[in-house]
Amino acid sequence: MKPGPAIAGLLLAAALGVSAWWLLGQKDDSENGLTVDGYATVETRSIASTVLATGIIRLRVGAEVRVGSQLSGIVEELNVVVGSKIAKGDVLARIDSRSLQARLEQANAQARVLQQEVKRAEVELERARQLDLQKLAPANDIEDRTLDLANAQARLEKARRDAAVVETDLQYAVITAPITGIVASVATQKGETVAASFETPTFATIIAVDALELVALVDETDIGTVEPGNAVYFTVEAYPIQEFQGVVKQIAPKGTIISGVVNFEVMIDIQSPVTALKPDMTANVSIRTAEREALVLPSNALQRDGFDQYVFVEENGAITRRNVSVGTREAGFTEIRQGLSKGSKVALVTRSETDSE
Question: What class does CATH assign to 64-96+173-208?
Fold first, then answer.
């Protein structure tokens, strides 16, 4: 056998092996499952400085009203249950008012009787005056008739005031809602007898529907930058992807020590609709305190690998991976604190399903 073909075959195999080794050693984006969709440039933008805190949703002072009865009697009608939505002026309950109605009628009848007595006294006084003109009546007769008329008028006035008192009590028999809200509790039932002799019994507790506020606990190291009027954004555990808005209303002048850390209560007016919020919900709060200049990048340019975040940067015609440190996220942009400089060209890439797996 001639050695020429065998040597040529060995050389060809070696060349193919070296070529395969060289190709496998190169970073080919298509083999790595990367697709470049475009490029973004690191730029300077004005972003908000934020203070992060935790908070709790609670009722404002005066938002919870206990409705009671100033009248003793039997509950004749009860129109609410726990959870009922009511408007201001709606009838919550009625107390049996038959005895009051009878007393009112009696007081009105007494007033009518006394009104007749006043008329009789007026007639007697006028008669005495006529007789006095004719010198046919004693000297003190006009004085006596005048006193009789004043006495009758006083008794009539008292009777009318007694009737007015009973009429007022009669109005208390109808218990109405003082505010618009939701019934949180009901402390009585139809047919039950309530006694208002010593204290006003509570019929129901009403919570105003829009009377919620957010109280955030801000660390003492951050409280110096928080001011009334700062915009607030927050989420609650029940709706983690829904963002609510508010504004700082008041800052407590005195701190609260929790686990050795001084915190200050920041009261926040909720500007978003509160139908989804309920008292005692926990909130994750972001208070925007000021604006500053920062390097930013579109958030979709960032990649994540565990706790690390990185981007793909184009340098000298090649795309390389670079870890970055990020900060505030706002309106689709993310602050870049370390790893990039202004003007850096970052590739917007997507990975293939195989690579992502």
Answer: mainly beta
